[in-house]
Amino acid sequence: LDEGLAIARRLGLEPHDLDGYIGYADLSGDSSHQLATIAHLDVVPAGDGWATDPFSMTRHDGYLLGRGVLDDKGPAAVTLWAAHYFVRRRERLPHTLRVLLGLNEETGMGDVGHYLANNDEPSFLFTPDAEFPVVCGEKGCFNAELSFPVQTDGRVIRMEGGTAQNAIPSAASALVRAEVASLPTSPGITLESAGTGLVRIQAAGRGGHAALPQGTVNAFGVLFSYLRDNMLFSASERSWVDFEDLVFSAYDGSLLGIAATDDVFDPLTCISGTFRMEGGAFVQSIDCRYPKSTNAERIAAGLGRAASDHGVTMRVTHEGRPFFVDPDSDVVQALLGAYNEFTGSDARPMTIGGGTYARRFSRAAGFGPVEPDVHDPEWVGQMHGPNEGISEELLRQSLKMDIYAIARLMELEL
């Protein structure tokens, strides 16, 4: 936050630190109405599988690589430079322009709670933490923890992996009772002896954001498939392994009885992000993103039944309703017009599975930086995954579109 506000000051904005929870930088306008942007400076843990140092930004072949370059430090820098454009014009804006820099987006958004307890809401706000052309809706969020007690006669002694509940893990491991020489090789699996009668199994997948499971491979799914295929479980662990098969064989929740879709949002997604040992039990996190045709109560009931039927205990840890703003509103149409004018497209507003700061405000939307139809090279990773990257050209285009959008929004009666 200190660094972000220092950049804001250098770019001619008036920085403010709100008790260390969140920062903002202003360019004063003629009216008391505020037009705001909000991005976040916190990131998920780096995790495994990086080809570069995740916390030293690397430039390679037109891309920036590093944790946060896409989600959301790169776009945060872009919002500051977009505001700087209007500083350099030296023309008084109709409304105050406020650039918010958050610190708690990935783990609860308590920073925004603190901000709203001490400040009025902006008249309108957009966040560059989503996709182009403009995001007018976000799925609901449901998080839970599932626990299965370690069995005294079990073959699985330990299981762990994952970096965050909202990230699909690229690596996972288990310590099991077996002889390494008796186990076959398998794609994505590494075996090593951990002592007499013990084997450590390492599973590799392809990580990514919990809201975007398409194209990812959950390392825990790889691990449980290997355990099941090679009968590396006792009779008392069978129900648990059967349950995990329901979790990892389909990320739409259909095998768990919680599938849902509607006319606005894509289908529900359900993934498991982390495993740990706690209190003599295997504890895993569950992250569901759901459309407006269902709700947290139905998901809790369906998932709870499936878990209970297999001897697994469920505890709900977080619920968040879907967010939706009228796609025909003047503010959403201003953002859409900026995108279409700049790109020559005829795009329409869209909805996403990710949860952003927009859901915490009355009038808000998502605006970039991802272009859904642009495909990056294989070595460029997704947000929340290893080798997270973003095209430098996309960041430059995002800057121009943010400027277009702010100029259009400033013309409205907020």
Lateral strand order in the biggest sheet: 1-2-6-3-7-22
As a whole number of angstroms, the C-alpha radius of gyration is 23 Å
| N- to C-terminal distance | 29 Å
Q: Count all strands and give the number.
A: 24
Major sheet details = 6 strands, mixed
Strand content: 25-35%
Question: What does this protein structure show overall?
Answer:
This protein is an alpha+beta fold. The protein is 25% helix and 31% strand. The chain has eight helices and 24 strands. A six-stranded mixed β-sheet has the order 1-2-6-3-7-22. The protein has a four-stranded antiparallel β-sheet with strand order 17-18-10-19, with helices on one face. Strands 11-13-15-14 form a four-stranded antiparallel β-sheet. A hairpin with a 2-residue loop joins β17 (269-278) and β18 (281-290). The longest helix has 19 residues, at 392-410. It is elongated and about 75 Å long. The model has no long low-confidence stretch (mean pLDDT 95).
Question: Which characteristics define this entry?
Answer:
31% strand; 8 helices; 414 residues; 24 strands; 6-stranded mixed beta sheet; single chain; 4-stranded antiparallel beta sheet; alpha+beta
Can I get a quick summary?
With 414 residues, the chain is α+β, with helices and mostly antiparallel strands.
List the helices and strands and how they pair.
Layout lengths: L1 H9 L3 E5 L3 E6 L1 E12 L17 E3 L2 E3 L7 H17 L3 E10 L7 H9 L5 E4 L2 E2 L3 E4 L1 E10 L6 E6 L5 E2 L2 E7 L11 E5 L4 E7 L3 E2 L9 H11 L8 H11 L20 E10 L2 E10 L5 H14 L3 E8 L2 E2 L5 H14 L6 E3 L11 E3 L2 E2 L18 E3 H19 L4
Parallel strand pairs: 3-6, 3-7, 7-22, 8-23, 9-21
Antiparallel strand pairs: 1-2, 2-6, 4-5, 5-24, 9-20, 10-18, 10-19, 11-13, 12-16, 13-15, 14-15, 17-18
Helix pairs in contact: 2-8, 4-5, 7-8
